[in-house]
């Protein structure tokens, strides 16, 4: 495994990185596997080496609300270890994923007094705050067309792969239920709106939850 491309681990010296390799735990999770749950004490930091994980809350009406989706090289749990805060949310593998697990003692040894590492942790925390703000704005939209359009635009920013013909592939393998949990819409509404966008030639729904964005500039209503 090539750890040198992971931003957080770039802050380590050669000797520290070799020590990290010997003591970090590499674990594979199947899609749907629970990584941690609400109320868990932060004993580990989790670095995504491959795949995607989702961070979500269970709502009182039985639905779930996705807060974040983390991709390769991102991490969760660093700030929790620093603050000793229990997790307020749950995490599951969105697809088969490989996670580097860093226990608290290893974290404290290599990152606690590493100013560059702390900058990386704080920078990612700041970006998550901005994503949370975008989520609040999106959920407050009454218009379902705006909700789905803004959601797809948000996913494009973080997970879009631009093709030579300027189309954009969302390679998240995210299903309708998960899109609903991320947008604040019902599964039925999401399906109806996605089918409408496909009929209009704005997107193409591919196998395994992938979405090809054909006309990114048409994701929002013309009058918006």
Rg calc? 19 Å
Large-scale geometry: globular
Instruction: Please state the second-level CATH architecture of the largest domain.
Output: Sandwich
Let me know the number of strands: 12
Share of helical residues: 25-40%
Distance linking N and C termini: 46 Å
Q: DSSP strand (E) fraction?
A: 15-25%
Q: Please, how many helices?
A: 7
CATH names the topology of the largest domain as Jelly Rolls
Question: What is the ordering of alpha helices and beta strands?
Answer: HEEEEEEHEEHHHEEHHEE
Our count of domains comes out at: 2
Major pleated sheet: 4 strands, antiparallel
Q: Strand arrangement, largest sheet?
A: 1-8-3-6
Mean pLDDT rating: 91
CATH homologous superfamily title of the largest domain:
Jelly Rolls
Uncertain runs: none
Class per helix and strand makeup: alpha+beta
Blueprint of the fold:
Blueprint: H1 14-23, E1 25-29, E2 34-36, E3 44-50, E4 53-58, E5 64-70, E6 75-76, H2 78-83, E7 90-93, E8 97-103, H3 104-110, H4 115-140, H5 144-159, E9 160-162, E10 168-170, H6 176-183, H7 187-199, E11 203-205, E12 211-213
Antiparallel strand pairs: 1-8, 2-7, 3-6, 3-8, 4-5, 4-7, 9-10, 10-12, 11-12
Protein architecture, described:
The chain is an alpha+beta fold and 224 residues long. It has 2 domains: 9-138, Sandwich (Jelly Rolls); 144-218, Arc Repressor Mutant, subunit A, CATH 1.10.10.10. Helices cover 38% and strands 24% of the residues. The strands form 3 sheets. It has a 4-stranded antiparallel β-sheet with strand order 1-8-3-6. The mean pLDDT is 91.
